[in-house]
Amino acid sequence: MNASRAAFRLFLIPVLLWLFLLIVLPHIDLLIMSLRGKNELREPVWTLQNYMNFFTEPIYWLTFVRTAIYSILTTAITLVIGLPTAFYIAKVGRARMQGFFMILLLLPFWVSELVRVYGWMILLRESGVLNFFLLKLGILHRPVEMLYNDATMIMGLVYTSMLFMVVPLVSAMDSLDDGLIEAACDLGANKLVIWRDIIIPHCKPGIASGCIVVFMLSLGNYLTPNLMGGKNSLWFTEQIYNQFIASFNWNQGSAFGFLLLALSSLIIWAGLKVTGQKLGEAAS
Amino acid sequence: MIRSLPRSKRYTISYNLFIALYFVFLFAPLAVTCVLAFNNSDFPSLPWQGFTLDWFTSPGPARVGIFHDEENLRSIWVSFQTAFWVSILSVIVGTCAAFLFEQEEFPFKNALYFLMLAPLVIPGVILGISILLAANTAGTFVEDATGIDVSFLRPSFWLVVLGQFSFITTFVALVVSARLRKFDRTLEEAAMNLGATRLETIRLITLRYLRPAIIGAGAVAFLMSFENFNTTLFLVGSKPTLPINLYLQVRDGSTPVINAISFLLIVGTSCLALVNLFFNKKNA
User: Fold this and answer.
1) Cα–Cα distance between B96 and B100 in angstroms, integer?
2) Which residues pair with A45 in a beta bridge?
3) What is the DSSP secondary structure assignment for residue A277, as one 8-state letter?
4) pLDDT in tens, B195-245
5) What's the alpha-carbon Rg for chain A, to the nearest Å?
6) Which ranges constitute the DSSP H helices of chain A?
7) CA-nearest residue of chain B to A27?
8) Does the domain at residues B70-253 carry the CATH identifier 1.10.260.40?
9) SS3 state of residue B98
10) HSE-up of B231 (CA within 13 Å, CB side)?
């Protein structure tokens, strides 16, 4: 009995140290920091000023709203492309090929995000590879800058988060019984009805976990908006970075950080609520 | 519509075309990056001017290949060290967490489990700034109290390790838990009936069984650490990791050396991912 208490402590102590020192305390510190500021005499005081700045300065809350809307848009596009792809891999393509497709799908995502974004940059920029071919083919007469606009930025975000949508969708569709689709087809249902009444309802857990992960990754992304969106990307993580590193205003940066954390938690909570899932199920 | 049902020719062809385009989309940036690493030109762009290995082996001064590029080599080495320590630490603590949540019963277990999943839904940028804040608070506190300046609490190598460890451990814990759940606990009971203590049983029986999952999780932790950008960005000190160093170079303009590094990264991570996949298949 004594030895098993010892084992319990051996497991518990490192886990508690990890969660409290590196997760709980830092986030409490973030909240405290966001509520601190200086008064007219430059003395440190408790204040809501950092949050007030966010609401009174349009550039801040507009960036915030813009980031949220574009993240939702990214999630929607990823879902629309991900559904047919996952369906092909799970149900349409040859069964023997499934393992091979999964490897193909995973490989690009093992490579650093920076390398992938860099690849898109040399493809799309004014002196890039795509422009070279379009000029050669006579489709364009002078090179066009395809980087640094919102559409390219969204495409980059979709590309970066694709995997996290397709993999849960494939595993959800794998567990769908072919017989259900066959039966529906025999009874005269068309493709639209089959998708609406059979496939989508069955894949709901996969759709939920895919959407949650993609949304969170887009919202918290810094590299892709910064490098592909350029100066006009106006992504909220860049505001946080600017406050922390450029202006050295940690109080303001903490308030922004806390707002972003609140938004992502809220949307994830809502997503889980709508689909009736628990965080543990969505994670695994 | 699916494998077992008759399909129209147009449906099959257009679906196959869609999937082909999808994989072109997935691999285009990586392929272009790799090909341009061997182009005999001072810029990573077309036209093709012949094959060269300059960007790998040239000693300078006009062209400095990656094998002679001190700064980039140093950042690769820093990334290796970081990933090494992160994977060791996260495997140890993650395995403890797996045992704790799969085999022990204690008050507030669900709350602690929920807390363990939290890093999955906290954007990496937020994790970075809150750990930066907490480390700064702790460092100031220690300095005020004792007059000792604790260097690892300022942005530095060890702070990066801690920051990456804080969320990678969750992934390790989930992977190891999944395998531990399939473990036949009567084996442990038998060992304990025969006189082994709990810790001996874990060391001789359970950890042996978990080994493939632990190795796999360690490899994933290594890759995640090696390519992490968001959390590292805020914690990095005078020794940048490879993704940070590459980011700074890409932002300020690019040379084919970046392509050469990307090529090595793509080949390296693909090999590691394939080996990992192979081991998983063998043990499945």
Assistant:
1) 6
2) A37
3) -
4) 888 888 888 888 888 888 898 889 889 988 988 898 998 888 888 899 998
5) 24
6) 2-19, 25-34, 49-56, 58-87, 98-110, 113-124, 129-136, 150-174, 178-186, 191-194, 200-219, 223-224, 236-241, 250-275, 279-283
7) B130
8) no
9) helix
10) 26
CB B212 within 8 A of CB B95: no
The chain A residue lying nearest B35, using CA atoms, is: A119
- Indicate yes or no: CB of B26 within 8 angstroms of CB of A268: no
Interface test with A, best of B17, B125, B188, B232 (most A CBs within 10 A): B125
Tell whether omega for the bond before A143 is within 30 degrees of 0, i.e. cis. no
Angle between helices B124-146 and B157-181 in degrees, nearest 10: 120
User: What is the interface pTM, i.e. ipTM, of the complex?
Assistant: 0.85
- Where in chain B are the domains? 70-253
Cα gap B21→B128, rounded to integer Å = 37
Domains delineated in chain A: 50-283 (1.10.3720.10)
| Partner residues linked to B64 by β-bridges | B59
**Are B45 and A127 inside 8 Å of each other by CB?**
yes
| Cβ contact B126–A114 (<8 Å) | no
- Cβ contact, residue pair B265, A115, below 8 Å: yes
CA angle A20, B89, B158 (to 5 degrees): 80
Residue linked to tokens 């109080």: A251
The mean-pLDDT minimum among B39-43, B88-92, B230-234, B248-252 falls in B39-43
Q: How far apart are CA B109 and CA B98, in angstroms?
A: 12
Q: Which of A13, A35, A94, A129 to mutate against chain B (most B CBs within 10 Å)? A: A129
Report pLDDT digits (tens) over A165-181: 998 898 888 888 888 88
Task: Give the gap in angstroms from C-alpha B18 to the nearest C-alpha of chain A.
Answer: 8
CB contact under 8 A, A220 and B273: no
> With an 8 Å Cβ cutoff, are B30 and A118 in contact?
no
Contacts of B131 in chain A (CB under 8 A): 22, 26
Whole-number pLDDT of residue A43: 77
Query: In 3-state terms, what secondary structure has residue B231?
Result: helix
Q: Per the structure block, which two tokens stand in for A185? A: 């087809």
Residues in chain A with CB shorter than 8 Å from the CB of B13 are none
